[in-house]
Amino acid sequence: MDDVVSARPRWWSFAVERPNFRRLWCAQSVSVFGSQVSLIAFPLIAISLLDASVSEVGMLASLERAPFLLFGLIAGVLVDRWRPRLVLLITDWIRAAVLGLIPAAAFFDVLSIEWLFVITFAVGSCTVFFDIAYQSVLTSVVESGDLLMANRWLETSRSVAEMSGPGVAAGLLRVVSVPVSIAVDALSFAFSALFVHSIRPAGPVSSAPRDPSTRDASIWSEFKAGLRYIRETSFLRWNAAIGASWNLLYQALLAVFFVYLARDLDLSATTIAIVVLAGSFGAVLGVLAMGRINKWCGLGWGIVLSMCMTSAGGILLATADGSSLPAIAIVGFGFLLINASQPIFNVNVISIRQMITPDHLMGRTTAAIRFLVWGALPIGALIGGFLGEAFGTRPTIVVIGAGFLIPAVMTLISPIRRIRDISDVGIKKSEPTTSKEG
User: Fold this and answer.
1) Is the Cβ–Cβ distance between 246 and 310 less than 8 Å?
2) Transmembrane residues, as ranges (predicted)?
3) Of the candidates 185, 323, 325, 379, which lies 20 to 30 Å from 70 by C-alpha distance?
4) Rounded to whole angstroms, how far apart are CA atoms 165 and 35?
């Protein structure tokens, strides 16, 4: 373990006193901001340069997310076999290279929608491997007792990127052309790779394959080992179930949310933008409040409280009526509560998961959890769209708002609420056998 600091620092000085974590955090932050630029620039390239149809723009969005379902599980097995730090380097350089092809192809007038499909899929595939590998590298650059603080830093950068990223991208696009903005995005991944390269590996996670004794094992047997560990570990089972139900409901909400605001509440485009901004700001507030919430009630009840916040937000959305100022305030505050709950839940459960998962199962466990949790996203979108079409957006919002009680009840009846501190879940990572968390 590098950068070991015996005294627990304040939140703002945590990364300053841990050079390796600081480099990993910078790499992740730059990568996340780069992804936010791509999120806006890709469809704009398709529309403005390639005259793409609505279905082709939708295909771009699908291809960017498809690798999470196609490769999520196998990526976890492979990351456990490979050197996670090397995976970060390779995926960053590949994303920089393929994104650099877009402005080059546009300059020579050879860019086509088919090439954009391929590049989008390649970038999405690299993101799958990067996201899994960086969590594995994290456990080698900070002490286990510092995982909560480290994940809080990482979640902060993600929340800030999601809140400010679209604005930064829009500002960039007003100054330069879309292909040039993609070139800037490519440079962001190159900078991320340089930060990763500067990490000085000291532990087995970042400097060597996880478990040399399992190199001859089949990929299928390693994949089953990861799923078996989740099935036999109480916390991970509840983590997957609660996370999947929350994602399904949230994606169902987003499928009808903007139609609900525009048509049922008759809000203007500017007002809708303010509501969305309030939700984005809620994620940042959640990160900032998390430390006090955990100190006040403990990790487990912090997770319970986060799900209760989501339920309260869903109920507020369902009760709003009309375009009056109070109705707008209710919708904005409800959306803020829902988004504020997400980082509190994420930081706590990810930190606990990293604490209880053996090193040689880290990639597989992370990938399997993400497959189960993120696999609910497209299902939720389909359900939300179907309900909105069949019964209308307001009844759908009411059903989803009530549905957010489900993850709250699940956390209340789960053993998660008994976890007070990160030390309460201490399990030796060297143990290959599965263990129940305390």
Assistant:
1) yes
2) 24-47, 59-79, 86-107, 113-134, 238-261, 267-289, 296-319, 325-350, 371-391, 397-416
3) 185
4) 9
Q: Write the CB contacts of 339 (distance below 8 Å, at least 6 apart in sequence).
A: 279, 280, 282, 283, 286
Cα angle 284-288-291, degrees, rounded to a multiple of 5: 145
Q: Is 80:363 a contact under the CB 8 Å cutoff?
A: yes
Among residues 52, 41, 57, the alpha carbon closest in space to that of 180 is found at 41
Q: Sign of the CA dihedral 392, 398, 401, 406? A: negative
Half-sphere exposure for 175 (CA within 13 Å, toward CB): 9
- Any idea what DSSP says for residue 13? G
Contact 20, 141 (CB under 8 A): yes
Banded pLDDT at 206 (limits 50, 70, 90): very low
Q: Does pLDDT of 205 surpass 70?
A: no
| Token pair in block for residue 226 | 């990861």
pTM of the model: 0.71
Residue-wise pLDDT tens digits, 259-273: 888 888 888 877 887
Cα of first residue to Cα of last residue in the chain, in angstroms, is 25
Q: What's the number of CA atoms in the CB half-sphere (13 Å) around residue 349?
A: 29
The tokens of 168 are what? 């930064």
Predicted confidence at residue 115, as pLDDT, reads 92
Please give the C-alpha separations between residue 275 and each of 272, 281, 331, 366, 373, in angstroms, as whole numbers. 5, 10, 7, 33, 26
Both tokens of 108, joined, read 């020579």
pLDDT, tens only, 289-334 = 888 888 888 888 999 999 999 999 988 988 887 778 888 889 999 9
Report DSSP state, residue 429.
T
pLDDT for residue 94 is more than 90: yes
